[in-house]
Amino acid sequence: MMKTKEKLLHLLDENKNNWVSGETSAQKLSISRAAVWKAIKSLRNDGYLIDAVRNRGYRLVSDADVLSELGIWKYLQSEYSSLDIQVMSEVGSTNDSLREKAIAGYPEGTVLVAGMQTDGKGRLGRRFYSPADTGVYMSILLRPTDIPPSKALRLTTAAAVAVCRAIESVSGKDPKIKWVNDVYLDSRKVCGILTEGTVSLESGSLDYVVLGVGINVYRPEKGFPADIEDIAGYIFEEKTSDGKNMIAAAFLNNFMKIYQSGDFESYIDEYRKRSFVIKKNINVINDGGIRKAFALDIDDNCRLIVCFEDGTMEHLDAGEISIRL
Predict the structure, then answer these.
(1) What's the order of all strands across the beta sheet hosting 110-114?
(2) Distance from C-alpha of 73 to C-alpha of 85, rounded to nearest angstrom
(3) Where do the H-state alpha helices sit in 104-150?
């Protein structure tokens, strides 16, 4: 059920760029004028730009881009209305927070979205830079029954394709994929994906999976940290009305379409076409060090087929690579 401020936001959004009086708001929402003013203050604290003029009322500024549950729902397709979406302004790590919910028994389709992470997680124990108001950081709880742990890589690669489709549909730009879990735009990384899960010892199947996605929507005001400033990128040069909400919803629409269909093979060709790794010289990085290789292809299980300098070939289902220019 929507809270008072969410109902008021919906009313203002329906009348965007038009004035809505406090009296009209109170009547339509069956609340007092004081409650309207309290909700206005709460929305402003959330970051919404709302004008107020005596004898005219309130007006939602059209170019605002505030991540919110209502904002995401506005662009979410009706067939995914069963998703339980919670938006928080700040969290330590969406993956960690959602993992706690998974252990507590929360159902599949629980989604946690944050506008900032103070301890964002990347692969291999790295941190994922997640400053306030510039990105979308979300995690989805999945409880797959027909995906064995050996093929869990498909969830990560399906998410990469879904991110690409989301960026393309909202911005018109052409994102590419760096195997296995990074999305690039104009040769810079704009998204990282971290998939974590547990396996049931009794059945040997996946108990739950937490799929985390971090997307850089805008350039941080003070830029990116020195260690990633030559790598990190972003989608929009300027603030775009509802940009973060549209990106979040478009990702959920595209990922859930693949996931609920169960037809993970259907997107493999698109994953290959969006890859900028195939037919390139690369470095394969793992516990054994760094080995030079040539990326031949990506197989139907999303494994990277590589040929090392000594002529041996492998199908990689884990690890990290870098491109050798």
Answers:
(1) 84-88, 110-114, 135-142, 206-216, 188-199, 182-185, 176-178
(2) 9
(3) none
Percent of the chain exceeding pLDDT 90 equals: 68
What residues does each domain of the chain span?
4-60, 69-274, 281-323
- Among the four given CATH numbers 3.30.930.10, 3.30.70.270, 3.30.1280.10, 3.30.1330.60, the one describing domain 69-274: 3.30.930.10
* Cβ-based neighbour number of residue 204 at 10 Å: 9
Measured distance CA(87)–CA(144) in Å, rounded: 24
Predicted confidence (pLDDT) at residue 147 exceeds the cutoff of 80 = yes
Q: Is the pLDDT of residue 124 over 80?
A: no
pLDDT at 325 over 80: no
Question: How far is 162 from 308, CA to CA, in rounded Å?
Answer: 31
The pTM of the full predicted model, rounded to 2 decimals, is 0.88
> Rounded to whole angstroms, how far apart are CA atoms 98 and 112?
7
Tokens of 127: 């941190």
Q: Which is nearest to 157 in space by CA: 316, 325, 323? A: 316
Question: Residue 22 is inside which H or E element, if any?
Answer: helix 22-29
> Which residues lie closer than 8 Å to 260 by C-beta, 6 or more apart?
none
pLDDT of 273 above 80: yes
pLDDT at 118 (0 to 100)? 95
- pLDDT-based confidence at residue 1 (cuts at 50, 70, 90): low
